Predict the structure.
Amino acid sequence: MIISVNGEEKFLNEPPVSINELLVVSEVESPEMVSVLLNGKVIEREKYEDTFIAEHDEVDFLYFMGGGSR
Amino acid sequence: MRDFSLEQLERYSRHILLQDVGVEGQEKLLDAKVLVVGAGGLGCPVALYLAAAGVGTIGIVDNDTVEISNLQRQIAHFTKDIDVPKVESAKEKMLAINPELEIRTYQLMLVADNIRDIIRDYDFVIDGTDNFPTKFLVNDACVMEKIPFSHGGILRFDGQTMTVVPGESSCYRCTFRSPPPPDAVPTCSQAGVLGAIAGMLGTIQATEALKFITGAGSLLTDTLLSFDAKTMNFRKVQLKKQDNCPLCGQSPTITELVDAEQAVCSL
Ligand SMILES: [Zn+2]
């Protein structure tokens, strides 16, 4: 199964893959600091477990970024 | 129309030469009011460029005083300014660049109780804050008051920004629902930031403000622009208004401002 993660093609060989599993496979170190977009739709954290990725899906991991002042 | 003095025509000549700005655009800038939240890494370059550009009224909010560790990136503050309130230090440099501006300083913490009254008077707000509770507070207050703003964040070698025009584009909460748990936010000692990144992102935010005021080009609305300075890869991610956004969605659950726990990290 070919999907896109942050704009780059990624091959997954054992579907089905949930958002949770994709976060692990993608080595996202702190998922709490990430917002997940699946085909442009924000997936709520409670739904990571039972939201599955399908062929050609586009997933974006968007990082919370603080900083600025101080 | 405003009468430009000879000095103003010279000072702003490189703007006036631009087809998308011109005399009309410069006039809009002189009439504009922009609030810069945070006089730190992002707020400093933003404030200096807005002052140089001739944004007529600039407000600047920050409760801190200058520390030596700020000087690596907060370019409006000089070594002589250590222990001086950041808003005063920034104001001094802004007026040194452009003495004809009105600079309003707010040496305070923005909280649920004061933010709406402060931002209400401005045309555009720059979020250059260092912590998530305040970032969300700025988003919520700007959406409620229908004031466009630029979100900005930097960490290590990375930066991100988006522009929010309430009522037209998606808000920060559409994509980033709620502040991350404080213990997940990289701590002061773990994180760090390459100083020049603040300039890279801050000048993008200042540019968005100038574009909004003059109407030039198209804004970073519904767009998260992020970069990784290690590779110099820039990426735009298309965002959209989310029906289930707790603030601007179809059945909002956030209808008034509340102060969240502050977990401030000295970035
Ligand atoms: Zn929203």
Q: What stands out?
A: The beta strands of chain B are 33-37, 57-61, 102-106, 124-127, 149-155, 158-164, 223-228, 233-238. Chain B has a mean pLDDT of 94. Chain B is about 30% helix and 15% strand.
